[in-house]
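Hi all, long-time lurker, first post. I run a small reading group and we've been trying to get comfortable going from sequence to structure in the token notation. Rather than ask abstract questions, I figured I'd post a concrete chain and ask someone more experienced to write out its structure so we can walk through it together at our next meeting. Sequence below, copied exactly:
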Amino acid sequence: MKNTTTFEAHLNQQYGVKGTLKRDEFEQGYDAFKLGVLIQEARKKQNLTQEELALRIGTSKSYISRIENDASDIRLTTLMRIAEGLGGQLNVSLIF
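-- Answer (accepted) --
Happy to help. Here is the structure in token form:
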């Protein structure tokens, strides 16, 4: 076990400490990825296809796919429409 390391130590080694440009870029990408996965899981839990969700919110299947696969930035208004299309609501928190 002497060769084990924490995830935080791994991130520090690979991307630098929090607050550095490389680490901040990694963290932003990770947050976007998590959001896409959350949307995909919620959609699948309701047995909706990407196309069905897209129709509910007035967008395209390809845009839903890009969001779920972290290939597209998402506007707050679109995120609100997705939440409503999934029968939920969006709660936003800023944590400092």
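A couple of things your group might point at:
Residues 16-85 form a domain with the 434 Repressor (Amino-terminal Domain) fold (CATH 1.10.260.40).
The longest helix spans residues 21-45.
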